Structures are given as structure tokens and as C-alpha cells.
Amino acid sequence: MKNSKRGILQKRAQKRIALRKLREVRESMGISQYELSVKSGIPRSAISEIERGKRNVSVVKLNKLADALNTDLKIDFVKRK
Question: How far, in Å, CA of 33 to CA of 18, rounded?
């Protein structure tokens, strides 16, 4: 596999992991997508698409989701391997 294709696949995997974490946190708190929608002001359908990786999401919306979940959003820059 070429390095460029491997890099693309790694980035997609990282995105899925991050969005899966959003869903895991929401579910561990016993909050439905609808309840998160009401708390965050983001439509339930958008939350569903975000969690499934079907919609790009801005840092502003991620912060709204984090606030609604009473959590902090952590974004980190790390050196590439």
C-alpha cells in the first residue's frame, strides 16, 4: 500500500475513533440524541450524522456538544510518526 493511501486511511480511522468517543460519552451518560439536541441546540439528525461520520463538524459545534455533555473538548497536535 502506498504511503499516501495509508495516510488517508489513518486519518479516516482517527476521525471515526473521535466520533465514536462522542457517542460513547453520550450513551454512558444515558443521554439520547434528542436530549443532546435540546441541550446543545444542534438538530438531532445532525448529531446522528456527526456520530456516524457522515457530516463534517466544526470546532464550534464540538464545543457546543461538549458543553451539553458537561465535558471539556480536548484537541491535541502531535508530531507525525
Answer: 17
